[in-house]
Specification:
The protein contains one helix and 16 strands. It has 202 residues and is mostly beta strands.
Length: 202
């Protein structure tokens, strides 16, 4: 299948199939937005009048950049169980899993035999209809595709080689519901807008 006809034809499962929300399969969003949370990078000026990009240190197992996302979007509500699940999840005050089946990328300065941590877990193992076949990982070693360079499972990345290992994967985001907004523009029409904030931990 050609991959030059838009993401509906991509072979990594990008945004294909139903979404996962707190244990429920729901339809695709009418529209959604994913924004990185405020960054942890800052510039450190040197005596030579150059600038070095600094980032917060999260441990040797963390990727180069560890940053969460904020999500916003809208659903057309068709089913009472669906709206009740959203209200339950967003009103609990507890994190829940949200997986729109998009892609995330983490990069590691890896040493062979060492174990590293993805910022968020793989969707497979959490979302029942996601597998390594339907949503395969992409792995690069020093910028070159090399699927044998690392073994990825759950949230762990075991390096099989030394170098810069990049993992492209389908994640499940642990989020907290910030806001939901109801809009009933017409009789029997019901739109729900939401904002989720990712809760990053490992």
């Amino acid at each position: 299948m050609s991959e030059d006809q838009g993401f509906n034809h991509w072979e990594d499962g990008f945004l294909q199939g139903g979404l996962y929300l707190a244990g429920l399969e729901v339809p695709k969003l009418q529209a959604y937005r994913r924004d990185q949370q405020e960054g942890t990078l800052w510039g450190l000026k040197t005596h030579a009048n150059t600038m070095i990009a600094q980032r917060l240190y999260h441990g040797v197992e963390a990727p180069r950049l560890r940053r969460g996302y904020n999500f916003s979007g809208k659903w057309l509500i068709w089913d009472r169980a669906f709206i009740e699940k959203i209200r339950e999840a967003t009103g609990s005050g507890e994190p829940f899993y949200f997986a729109p089946l998009d892609r995330a990328t983490d990069t590691f300065d890896a040493v062979s035999g060492e174990t590293y941590k993805l910022v968020r877990p793989l969707a497979r193992g959490i979302v029942p209809w996601v597998t390594a076949v339907t949503h395969p990982d992409g792995i690069e070693l020093d910028g070159v595709v090399d699927l044998a360079a690392a073994t990825v499972s759950g949230q762990n990345v075991v390096a099989n080689d030394t170098g810069v290992i990049t993992v492209h994967y389908t994640p499940a985001y642990k989020v907290i519901g910030k806001t939901i907004s109801d809009d009933i523009p017409t009789n029997n029409g019901y739109d729900l807008s939401f904002m989720f904030e990712e809760f990053v931990s490992f």
